[in-house]
Design goal:
7 helices, 4-stranded antiparallel sheet, about 30% helix, globular, alpha+beta
């Protein structure tokens, strides 16, 4: 006796078809996510390049010096922010506040982060409302985690897996600088700073000075200042400004690429994988695991509170 096959699907066929559709949907979602992040990363890179050009213009008009960090809050008190001085750069050198933004950090807009979340909430981003996030800029020559932490760079944070606590900076070169910043009411943030004897040799080129960023600062960290090839290469290795990253984030903003964009002294911007793996635990700033622990709270000691 002949049996006719039903026009319906068997349970197995339904399950297999559903699973295949689910996999295809997941692949599509991942592809869209990667494409969106590629656009965001490109925007961040372009913004950093424009900021680099603004720094160069500022330096040309200020004896080669780069702008200082954001020393004061809107109310005139000392600031903890590690970003360039907004009142110095905006609008004379940076006319569009949207340049100081990275869409990978948040789906929001600058006004939502700078003004509503951390400013006076008047609907306008004031130059003095710029904050550390989504970018970092200190205004000093920093090429190694040890420049900030000294011997602490080779140790772990007291709270493993999170940022170094504010109290841990007390006995570091950075703590020396922060103390001087408070004592001088912010003037130290626009000067070269010589660390105390306890931290001798912790700075660039095994030196004792935290140099303010300026054109030609690479000459302080090379042996042969007459070798233009070495000087040019060194300029490509000095970080000036970079994406925000902290230990609490577990990963940098540029997912799935796992890395951060860095603006270097010569003006180029490069994407650097995170974390940087090197022979020394402190090399590779600002993209090491130790760097991530530093960047969470390293500005906090600068207000003396």
């Amino acid at each position: 006796m002949l049996r006719c096959r039903s026009n319906g699907y068997t349970l197995v066929e339904v399950v297999v078809t559903t699973a295949i559709l689910g996999v295809l949907a997941l692949i599509l979602i991942l592809a869209i996510s990667r494409a969106r992040e590629a656009v965001h990363r490109s925007t961040c890179v372009n913004n950093l390049r424009q900021i680099g050009l603004a720094f160069s213009q500022y330096a040309q008009e200020n004896e080669g010096r780069f702008p200082p960090r954001q020393v004061f809050r809107m109310d005139g008190s000392l600031s903890t922010e590690m970003i360039f001085s907004g009142t110095t750069m905006v609008p004379e050198y940076i006319t569009d506040i949207n340049v100081v933004w990275c869409p990978s950090y948040s789906e929001g807009e600058p006004v939502e982060w700078y003004d509503k979340a951390r400013g006076n909430n008047d609907g306008v981003v004031e130059p003095g409302e710029l904050t550390t996030e989504p970018f970092h800029y200190t205004g000093w020559l920093l090429v190694d985690d040890a420049n900030i932490l000294g011997p602490l760079a080779e140790s772990e944070s007291s709270d493993l897996g999170s940022s170094f606590a504010e109290s841990e900076y007390a006995n570091t070169p950075w703590g020396d600088l922060a103390k001087a910043n408070v004592e001088t009411n912010g003037a130290a943030s626009d000067r070269d700073f010589t660390v105390s004897a306890a931290y001798a040799g912790t700075q660039a080129h095994d030196g004792d000075t935290i140099y303010r960023l300026r054109e030609g600062v690479e000459r302080f960290i090379v042996t042969d200042v007459d070798d233009e090839t070495v000087l040019t290469r060194t300029r490509t290795q000095i970080p000036v400004m970079w994406d925000h990253i902290t230990a609490e984030m577990k990963a940098p903003p540029h997912m799935p690429g796992r890395g951060i964009n860095i603006l270097y002294l010569d003006g180029h911007v490069a994407f650097r994988r995170f974390p940087v793996l090197s022979i020394s635990a402190s090399q590779g700033f600002p993209a090491t695991n130790t760097s991530a622990r530093i960047l969470g709270r390293y500005g906090m000691p600068f207000d003396g509170i």
